[in-house]
Design brief:
The chain is an all-alpha fold. It is built from five helices and no strands. The protein has helices at about 1-35, 40-45, 50-100, 105-155, 165-190. The longest helix is centred in the C-terminal third of the chain and has 52 residues, at about 105-155.
């Protein structure tokens, strides 16, 4: 009976500790976004600079993972929805333009203007879509290269004459991050 109570108390304590960590990380993120340095954040929150540094590293890692998930999962779906919606608007606008009875010229011109706008948006999505697709392929290709390189090195058990993939891994991770940042910036600008 007491061991069950001890277990429940331990779980409650772990839950409180996790809540405190999440609260602290949210504060670290907020203060960092306000331009505070790690030392300033540590002073404000009354924690060690190392704790703030680790929280920022964790938050950075989470942000990268969220961005990868967004690019690989959410973005293609939203892109497809936009293209389908634009095509539906185009079909409706063309049906208005092609109606011969009961439509005056002003409405036809408005429909043609809408068709023109839809084609512009479609072109923007198509050209930006290529950038997004290239970024996704780049990330996937480099992940596959890293996975292949790691498994090959582990399987051999002896020193290989192939190049050292640890050095290349850092470079590939930097390139992936740069590609994701470029894609994110492209997306941000295209949404403006």
């Amino acid at each position: 009976m007491s061991s069950e109570r001890d277990h429940q108390q331990l779980q409650k304590q772990q839950h409180r500790e996790q809540d405190q960590i999440e609260w602290r990380r949210s504060q670290v993120l907020e203060l960092s976004s306000q331009g505070q340095t790690e030392r300033q954040i540590a002073t404000i929150l009354r924690v060690g600079k190392t704790t703030v540094h680790k929280d920022l590293a964790y938050l950075s890692s989470q942000a990268k993972e969220n961005l990868k998930t967004h690019i690989q999962d959410k973005l293609p779906e939203e892109y497809q929805k936009c293209m389908v919606g634009i095509n539906q608007v185009l079909n409706m606008a063309w049906s208005i333009v092609n109606k011969s009875i009961g439509i005056d010229d002003k409405i036809r011109l408005q429909a043609l203007s809408l068709i023109n706008d839809c084609n512009k948006y479609k072109m923007e999505l198509t050209t930006n879509g290529v950038v997004i697709t290239d970024a996704i392929k780049f990330v996937q290709t480099n992940k596959e290269k890293l996975t292949t390189a790691t498994s090959t090195k582990e399987d051999s058990g002896k020193e290989s004459e192939e190049p050292d993939y640890d050095e290349d891994k850092d470079q590939l991770e930097e390139e992936q991050e740069e590609a994701l940042n470029r894609t994110f910036m492209t997306l941000s600008y295209s949404m403006l």
